[in-house]
Design goal:
This protein has eight helices and eleven strands. The chain is of the alpha+beta class.
């Protein structure tokens, strides 16, 4: 017997279903457009297996990550928060491999315990391997309270723009149903994950240097938002934009690009990171923008916990974050104005207030 649960239907983005059976649960996601499908497929197929294989990355493990049980929680996963405008060019993306079967593919690469998939280790439906022996015991701190996991890619279909993923347990962190220690530990774990993602080897073969691309984005969005900003706001944002030189010589790295608690599930001893449909190469600080604008402004302790796992930002990284935060605010406001969206207008105004606080 199969039980189908609709998790999301959005006419502009994707339809997401959870399918439960006696053998286990999977998530089926059908994208509406090729670009987010290709981006999410690339993340699950090319990037995340690199984290799974990172035997020299103990910072991704929890205190007993090798044999952690998988706690099943409410099935509200795979529901991203409101989406913002797309503000840059798509990177070079590779489609699915056509070897052996051109349209249906299963996951490839070993499932190591350092960053495990969210599926059950012994599920006959998913056919995942046995876990490796437990990691050596060590004293856990704020960096090590939670394991980090991601869904496993089970199959992909180019013609229907569909993905089959293992179902992740837990509740989205933004719901505010978790106690303070758990929330702090989740942010520390998210910081560890993000640093490891950004350190994956990737070729930045975009012909436009990052510093030039950021400058072009700034000019375009500032022009679109000019009439909805006051002269004082425009002046302050231009001062932030002047820090764009911090992007000189910086290469693009693998980024999630929608990295917020909306896309994290907390289940027992593990944090599950979801929804890679916006993932592509970008400046590493792009993954901090929404956290800085929407989450940390209300609770600075969360920023401290995140950076305890991620590592502190040097002066240049902080300058790049300032520039991207201003860009995020302006782009969100301009998009909200064009689409008459009051929710995005409120998001843009909050982001703008945070950005303006960073002007010196």
């Amino acid at each position: 017997m199969l039980l189908w649960t609709c998790l999301k239907i959005h006419v502009m983005c994707a339809a997401v279903w959870r399918v439960d059976s006696p053998a286990g649960a999977i998530v089926l996601k059908q994208h509406r457009h090729p670009r987010p499908f290709a981006q999410e497929l690339q993340a699950y197929r090319d990037w995340l297996p690199g984290l799974l294989d990172a035997r020299d990355a103990p910072h991704l493990r929890g205190p007993s990550d090798s044999q952690q049980p998988h706690h099943r929680g409410p099935s509200d996963s795979q529901q991203p928060h409101l989406r913002g405008p797309s503000d840059s060019q798509q990177p070079h993306l590779r489609g699915p491999s056509d070897s052996q079967h051109p349209h249906l593919r299963g996951p490839s690469g070993p499932q190591e315990p350092h960053l495990r998939s969210s599926s059950d280790s012994h599920s006959p439906l998913l056919g995942l391997p046995e876990p490796l022996p437990p990691a050596p015991a060590r004293e856990p701190g704020v960096h090590d309270l939670l394991a980090v996991r991601v869904p496993a890619l089970l199959a992909s279909d180019r013609r229907s723009l569909g993905l089959a993923l293992s179902a992740a347990p837990g509740e989205r962190l933004y719901l505010g149903t978790h106690d303070s220690p758990s929330t702090l530990a989740a942010h520390a774990a998210a910081g560890r994950f993000l640093r490891a993602l950004h350190q994956l080897p990737a070729v930045d073969d975009d012909p436009i240097p990052l510093v030039a691309a950021v400058a072009a984005r700034l000019d375009a969005w500032h022009a679109r938002a000019r009439d909805i900003l006051s002269p004082a706001e425009r002046d302050a944002l231009q001062r932030l934009a002047a820090r764009r030189d911090a992007f000189a010589g910086v290469r693009r790295v693998p980024c999630h690009r929608d990295f917020t608690p909306d896309n994290w599930l907390l289940a027992g001893d593990a944090l599950h990171v979801l929804d890679f449909e916006h993932a592509r190469l970008d400046a590493a600080e792009a993954d901090l923008v929404k956290l800085c604008a929407d989450t940390w402004a209300e609770n600075p302790a969360l920023a401290e916990a995140f950076l305890a796992g991620h590592g502190s930002l040097d002066t240049d990284a902080a300058a790049r974050l300032d520039v991207l935060l201003a860009l995020h605010a302006v782009a969100t406001l301009a998009w909200a104005e064009r689409h008459a969206d009051p929710d995005f207008h409120a998001l843009g105004r909050r982001a703008l207030a945070v950005a303006l606080d960073r002007v010196t």
